[in-house]
Design a protein that fits this description.
Blueprint lengths: L1 E2 L2 E2 L1 E3 L2 E5 L4 E12 L2 E11 L4 E12 L2 E11 L4 E11 L4 E10 L4 E10 L8 E11 L4 E10 L2 E11 L8 E2 L3 E5 L3 E13 L2 E10 L3 E12 L3 E11 L4 H6 L8 E13 L3 E10 L4 H4 L7 H12 L11 E11 L3 E12 L2 H4 L4 E14 L6 E12 L5 E12 L2 E3 L3 E17 L8 E14 L2 E9 L2 E17 L20 E19 L5 E20 L14 E2 L2 E7 L5 E9 L6 E11 L5 E9 L4 E13 L2 E10 L4 E13 L2 E10 L2 E10 L3 E10 L5
Parallel strand pairs: 16-45
Antiparallel strand pairs: 1-2, 3-5, 4-5, 5-6, 6-7, 7-8, 8-9, 9-10, 10-11, 11-12, 12-13, 13-14, 15-17, 16-17, 17-18, 18-19, 19-20, 20-21, 21-22, 22-23, 23-24, 24-25, 25-26, 26-27, 27-29, 28-29, 29-30, 30-32, 31-32, 32-33, 33-34, 34-35, 34-36, 36-37, 37-38, 38-39, 39-40, 40-41, 41-42, 42-43, ...
C-alpha cells in the first residue's frame, strides 16, 4: 500500500497473509509505519484493498508530534480518519490532552468527541480539567464544547453550557483575554482585544477599553512580516477624554486637551539597490498621556517590551522625556563605505518650546572606513555629512561637514602598535538668521593631530581547579594624544548641535585594560576531550590630562577643564554563567569626593533564585538611586519575589512591589502588590497552560481604603 509519504511497512512477532482477501493479520508488538506516521498495537487486521486497519490492545497512532491512543481503533490509512473507543488525543501545538469515551476523527483536521475531559496537565492525574458532554474540534479553528464544567482535582468549581477553546494550529481571528482594573484616576476599566489574522504576512489587534471616568479609548496594533513590505509593528490609541477637569487637577494632571492619542512604531524594510532602512515613530498628544495611562495596551511598558522583543530596540525616550523622537534612517553599505540618510523629528510636548525645537530634516552622510591609500603604507578615512536644520522660530539653515584623515600605522613585532594621524575638518554653513544683519554664508576650518600607542602583554599560568587547567592574564596599555588648535571662523558660525561648539583641546588620554581568560577541558558523552575558553574578568582604568581648557558653551554643556580629569574605572566579572557584575565609576584623583557610579550585579541560579542590584549615582545631577530585585524559590513550586526603587536624593522609596507565585506544571497562581508614590495595586492571576492567564487588578490611592 502506497501513501503520500511512501509505502506502509508492517512488522510484528507473528504475521499471516490471506491472499484471496488481501488481508494481513499481525500479533505481538505490531508496528505499521510510513514517514513520520506510525501505528502500534497488540493485534491488527489490515485490509490492503480498503486500506482499513482494525487495531486492538494498547493502540497508539502518531502523526508528527500529535498522537491518539485507545484500546480499540478502526482506522482508514488513506483518509486518516477513524473511531476510537475510550481513547485520548494529544495536540502538541497547544499541549492539550483530550479524553473521550468516543472519539471520531472525521477529517484531517476535525474531531468529534463525547463524554470526556480536556487538560494540559498529566492526563492520568490532572490538577485541572474541563469536563464536557460533546465537543467538536477543528485544528484550523477552535474547539466548541457543550455541557462543560471546570474541575480542580476532583472538585467542580464552575459550570457553563458551552465554551470555546483555542486549539487552532494556525493563526485564527477571535477575541483575546480581556483586562480589567480600577484606579482613582480612571475609575473602573475593562479592555477587550480582538485579533484579526487577515493575511499570512499581516495581522491586527483591535483594543476596546472603557473607563468610567474617562470614556472609550480605541486602540490598534498592526503587525507585518513580509519580504515586500518589511517587518514592522504599528500601534495607535485614541481617547476623546470625558474626564472632569477638577478631578484631573486633584490627581496632579492638569487638563491639556480632550483629544488624547499616541502613535508609535518600529518598522524595518529593504529597498532596491541594497538599501536598508528603519522607521521609528513616537508622537503623543500631550505631556501627561504616558503618565496617566500606565496599564493595558496604551501603556509605555506594553509597547516598549513588545518592540524590544521583536526588534531588539525599545522606545528611545522613556515616559518622563517631553521631547519625543521620531526618525527615518536608510543606508547603503559597500565594502569600505557607507551612504546614509537620516531624518529626525522631535515632538516637543512642552508646546511653549515646540516652535523653537530644532529638527534635522534631513541629514545625509558618507563615510569611508580606514583604507589603504594607493598601495602606500598610508591609510585614509572620511566622515562627511550635509544637514538641514529647521524650526519655526530661531536660527535655521544647512551645514556641510567634511572630515578626512590620513594615518600611518606601524607595528614593532607583537609588542608595540603606533599610529600617528592628521585630520582636517571643514564646515560650511548657509544660515537664515533670526536677525537679518548677519551674513548667511559662514565657514570654519579645523585641523587636528593624533598619536595612538598600544601594546599587549600576555602570560599563561598553570591552574588546576575543577575542569580549569590554565588561566591567561592579558594587559593592554594604551596612550592617545590629540591636539586641536583654534579653528578659523569659529566665532561666526551658528550653534546647531555639539559639533558646532568649540572643539579646541590639547589632551593626553591613557589607560590600561586587564583581561582574564580561563581554559577548561571537558569530556563529552563519548569520552572525547573538548576545550573551551571563558573570559571571566575585565578591569579597565583610564585617565586624561588637558593642557588647555576649552571655552564654555552654555548651549551644549560642552567644556573640558584644564588639568587632570577624573579617573575612570570599569570592572566586569563573569566567573560563572549565572553570575555577572559590572561596576563603572568616575572619581577625582585630587579629592575624595565621588563623581559617578553605575553598579549592576545579577546572581541567577537558573533554578528559580534571582538577585539583581542596580545602583546609579551622578554628582552633577539629582540621581542617587538603588533598584533591587529579589526572587527565591522557597518551596518546590512556590516563588516569592520583590523589588524596590529607592531614591537617596529624595530619601523616598519611589516604587516597590511584592509577589508570590505557585507553579504546578500545567497551572500557576500569582498574587502581587505594587505601590508607586500614592497609587497602590493588588493583582491576582491564574495561569492555565494552553488557555492563558486570567486575573484582575485593583488599584487605589493611599487616601482611600478597600
Amino acid at each position: 500500500m502506497d501513501s503520500k509519504q511512501g509505502p506502509w511497512n508492517i512488522s510484528a512477532a507473528k504475521i499471516s497473509y490471506d491472499q484471496e482477501k488481501q488481508v494481513y493479520e499481525a500479533e505481538g508488538d505490531v508496528r505499521i509505519s510510513s514517514g513520520d506516521r506510525s501505528i502500534e498495537a497488540d493485534w491488527a487486521l489490515l485490509d490492503t484493498e480498503k486500506q482499513v486497519a482494525d487495531l486492538r490492545g494498547h493502540v497508539r497512532l502518531r502523526y508528527g508530534k500529535d498522537w491518539l491512543e485507545g484500546e480499540h481503533v478502526l482506522w482508514n490509512l488513506k483518509e486518516e480518519t477513524g473511531t476510537v473507543d475510550e481513547g485520548m488525543v494529544f495536540f502538541s501545538e497547544n499541549h492539550f490532552y483530550v479524553h473521550g469515551q468516543s472519539i471520531n476523527k472525521t477529517g484531517p483536521m476535525e474531531y468529534a468527541l463525547k463524554q470526556g475531559f480536556i487538560t494540559s496537565c498529566d492526563p492520568y492525574k490532572p490538577d485541572w480539567k474541563l469536563r464536557y458532554g460533546e465537543m467538536k474540534v477543528n485544528l484550523e479553528g477552535i474547539a466548541w464544547a457543550r455541557d462543560t464544567s471546570f474541575w480542580v482535582r476532583n472538585v467542580p468549581l464552575l459550570y457553563t453550557p458551552f465554551v470555546a477553546l483555542p486549539v487552532q494550529q494556525k493563526r485564527q481571528s477571535g477575541f483575546l483575554l480581556p483586562w480589567a482594573g480600577f484606579s482613582e484616576l480612571n475609575g473602573m476599566e475593562l479592555e477587550v482585544p480582538f485579533y484579526w489574522a487577515f493575511r499570512e504576512d499581516m495581522d491586527a489587534t483591535f483594543y476596546g477599553r472603557y473607563m468610567t471616568k474617562r470614556g472609550w479609548m480605541s486602540g490598534l496594533e498592526y503587525r507585518v512580516a513580509s519580504p515586500r513590505w518589511g517587518e514592522g509593528i504599528w500601534l495607535f490609541n485614541y481617547l476623546s477624554d470625558e474626564a472632569d477637569k477638577s478631578h484631573l487637577e486633584a490627581q496632579g494632571y492638569p487638563f491639556q486637551t480632550a483629544d488624547r492619542y499616541w502613535v508609535r512604531s518600529r518598522h524595518s524594510f529593504e529597498l532596491p539597490y541594497e538599501i536598508r532602512g528603519r522607521l521609528d515613530l513616537d508622537l503623543v498628544s500631550d505631556s501627561n498621556y504616558l503618565k496617566e495611562f500606565e496599564k493595558g495596551s496604551s501603556s509605555f511598558d506594553f509597547s516598549d517590551n513588545m518592540f524590544r522583543e521583536f526588534f531588539g530596540r525599545g522606545i528611545l525616550n522613556d515616559e518622563t522625556i517631553l521631547a519625543r523622537e521620531s526618525s527615518l534612517y536608510m543606508d547603503q553599505r559597500h565594502e569600505s563605505a557607507l551612504l546614509g540618510l537620516d531624518v529626525r523629528y522631535w515632538d516637543q510636548l512642552d508646546r511653549s518650546l515646540n516652535e523653537f525645537t530644532l529638527q534635522k530634516l534631513p541629514s545625509l552622510s558618507f563615510s569611508v572606513i580606514p583604507s589603504r591609500f594607493l598601495g602606500t603604507p598610508l591609510f585614509y578615512s572620511l566622515d562627511s555629512s550635509w544637514v538641514n536644520y529647521w524650526r519655526q522660530e530661531g536660527d535655521r539653515g544647512n551645514r556641510f561637514d567634511v572630515f578626512p584623515r590620513i594615518s600611518y600605522p606601524m607595528h614593532w613585532k607583537s609588542y608595540l602598535d603606533i599610529e600617528p594621524s592628521v585630520g582636517v575638518r571643514a564646515n560650511s554653513y548657509s544660515v537664515s538668521w533670526q536677525e537679518d544683519d548677519r551674513n548667511s554664508w559662514q565657514g570654519r576650518l579645523l585641523s587636528d593631530v593624533r598619536l595612538e600607542m598600544s601594546s599587549r602583554l600576555n602570560r599563561v599560568y598553570a591552574f588546576n581547579m575543577g575542569n580549569v587547567v590554565a588561566m591567561q592574564h592579558s594587559i593592554r596599555p594604551e596612550v592617545v594624544y590629540e591636539y586641536v588648535p583654534k579653528g578659523l571662523g569659529q566665532d561666526d558660525i551658528p550653534q546647531f548641535d555639539p559639533l558646532d561648539a568649540d572643539q579646541t583641546f590639547n589632551e593626553i588620554r591613557y589607560g590600561v585594560t586587564n583581561f582574564f581568560t580561563s581554559k577548561s577541558v571537558l569530556r563529552d558523552a563519548d569520552g572525547n576531550q573538548a576545550t573551551t575558553y571563558h573570559e571571566f574578568a575585565r578591569l579597565q582604568l583610564f585617565h586624561a590630562f588637558n593642557f588647555q581648557p576649552s571655552e564654555p558653551n552654555l548651549n551644549f554643556d560642552f567644556e573640558r577643564g584644564e588639568g587632570a580629569s577624573s579617573v575612570g574605572m570599569r570592572l566586569d566579572l563573569m566567573p560563572q554563567k549565572y553570575v555577572m557584575l559590572t561596576y563603572d565609576t568616575d572619581f577625582y584623583s585630587t579629592v575624595s569626593s565621588q563623581a559617578n557610579h553605575d553598579l549592576i550585579m545579577t546572581l541567577d541560579s537558573g533554578r528559580g533564585h534571582l538577585f539583581r542590584v542596580d545602583y546609579q549615582f551622578r554628582k552633577d545631577y539629582p540621581i542617587d538611586e538603588l533598584i533591587t530585585e529579589f526572587s527565591v524559590k522557597i518551596m518546590p513550586n512556590v516563588y516569592v519575589n520583590t523589588y524596590h526603587d529607592y531614591s537617596f536624593d529624595k530619601d523616598e522609596l519611589y516604587k516597590q512591589g511584592y509577589g508570590i507565585k505557585y507553579i504546578q506544571g500545567c497551572w500557576g497562581l500569582g498574587l502581587t502588590y505594587e505601590k508607586e508614590e500614592e497609587d497602590q495595586r493588588v493583582a491576582l492571576s491564574i495561569n492555565l497552560l494552553g488557555l492563558g492567564s486570567f486575573g484582575g487588578t485593583y488599584a487605589y490611592s493611599s487616601q482611600n481604603s478597600f
